[in-house]
Amino acid sequence: MLFMSDKKRLLTGLQSSGDLHIGNYFGALKPFVDMYENYESFLMIADYHALTSLRDPEAMHRNTINVVKDYLAAGVDPEKAVIFRQSDNQDHVELGWVLNCMVTVPFLQQAHAYKDKVAKGLEPNAGLFTYPMLQAADITLYDIDVVPVGEDQRQHLEYTREAVGKFNRAFGETLKEPKEMIYESVGVVPGTDGEKMSKSKGNIVPLFGTPEETEKAIMSIVTDSEGDNPENVYAIHRLIKTAEELLPVYEEHKGRYGDLKKILVNDLEEIIAPMREKREQISEDDVKNILADGAKRAKVISNVTMERVRKMIGVSL
Ligand code: ADP
Ligand code: TRP
Predict the structure, then answer these.
(1) I want to staple 295 with a disulfide (CB 3.0 to 4.6 A). Which of 30, 70, 88, 315 is the partner?
(2) What confidence tens digit (pLDDT) does each residue in 195-230 have?
(3) Which phi-psi region, left, alpha or beta, contains residue 14 (left: φ > 0; alpha: ψ -120 to 50)?
(4) 199 in catalytic set
(5) What range defines the domain where residue 207 resides?
(6) Residue 233 sits in a domain of what CATH number?
């Protein structure tokens, strides 16, 4: 099915870099699931972006399958969103090249992702250097209006607009300027140590771990030893229950952190269990079929943009 509505277009890209945690779920996945049907939505696996740091074909394959499963399990309907891989559609690298020719080296040198690697003394590859222009292509190929992303991606959207502006000024109005939609309503989900939950910090509560793994992580959450309310436990609890619902529970179990953690385990499990079950029903072949169908649907749209671009720059004779 191709889109035929007057809804705005939305696209987000996923770097499939490992198993998701509940911070990812409440911070990005759930907000996406809650709103994607209001738009013509595209969900793209950014596997060629992942190649800037991943040299493990087996992991590349596994991560791709897994991230699609995660989104399907969380409620994305592949009929309603176009789910596809960047590497399945050659238009991305082609427009990425064209956009590379629009921006300067000093401009790309200011990109955070690149600067961070250099600051850490890591050897940046040229793919990492031009990463923002591949991302700009991901977005502009589909005439996208909004791009839901975390705060860390704000600069990439600025870079996209800059490249689009330069292209349009040089060749005439061709590409659409997108806007970012920063996920911020839930704030930062704390990890088991009270810091921001992040896979690089080893403080995560897994989203699709076994019930035992979820429980182990929750029971290890650090709490202050004096107050009545274990803050980090409560912060996670508030993501799934209202303050009114929690008030009597926290009153009744005042100071008994272990009990409150067990209640949180059960409440979380109520949300995760149905998703976990759904995820187990999804096979690798299901994912491959969805991605093949998504690639076809994506290309129908991006080919039109690419034709337009080729004509404007003078390479379609
Ligand atoms: P990580 O920090 O574990 O590497 P990513 O940077 O891959 O996570 O984040 C993927 C998405 O999940 C982003 O949109 C980000 O905003 C969101 N996210 C990650 N960690 C949290 C958190 N602790 N609280 C809220 N949102 C988060
Ligand atoms: N750079 C993004 C990230 O690391 C992933 C991404 C690639 C993306 N292409 C995109 C996000 C296009 C939004 C739109 O999270």
Answers:
(1) 88
(2) 999 988 999 999 999 999 999 999 999 887 665 567
(3) beta
(4) yes
(5) 199-278
(6) 1.10.240.10
